[in-house]
Amino acid sequence: MTPRGKRAAVIGGGLAVLAVVVALVLNAFQSNLVFFFSPTQIAANEAPRDRSFRVGGMVQEGSLQRAADGVTVRFVVTDTAKTVPVAYKGLLPDLFQEGKGVVAQGRLGPDGVFHADQVLAKHDENYMPPEAADAIQKAQHGEMPSLAGTMKPQQ
Question: Is 6 helix (H, G, I), strand (E, B) or coil?
């Protein structure tokens, strides 16, 4: 093999390895993306049924139900236009309460209940997750929230 052929083989091999590494990184990034959907978007069937996503809004007053086992809870998340029932098994954040902002991460079941793996509550009196605040504001004005800018890498 000539020096020129060896050099072309090394460059070609290096590009192939680089392509494999880039493909693996992009695949890992894609699998860690978690999209945010409002209850209005979920009601419009815009939310995926086959992957995890986040839903946010306010915990509807009077909707919190605790099971006898002490760790299973059910509540309703609303954006003031539509609601989504949520089921969660685990300890709720200390600041979780009815009428306050919440973001839940999980999957939408075939029964229409959102089965949460994680529940996040607001952390001070003036804070609400930006996605939830935006969804509530748009729902109050009768606008349909768009997906632009709703991608969040999972932490």
Answer: helix
**Residues with Cβ within 8 Å of residue 47, at least 6 apart in sequence:** 37, 41, 53, 55, 108
Residue at 95: amino acid letter: L
pLDDT tens for each residue of 16-29: 999 999 988 888 77
Looking at domain 34-153, its CATH class is mainly beta
Predicted confidence (pLDDT) per residue in 71-87, tens digit: 899 999 998 889 999 99
Q: Where are the domains of the chain?
A: 1-31, 34-153
Q: Is the pTM of this model over 0.70?
A: no
Burial label, 77 (beta-carbon count in 10 A; 0-12, 13-18, 19+): buried
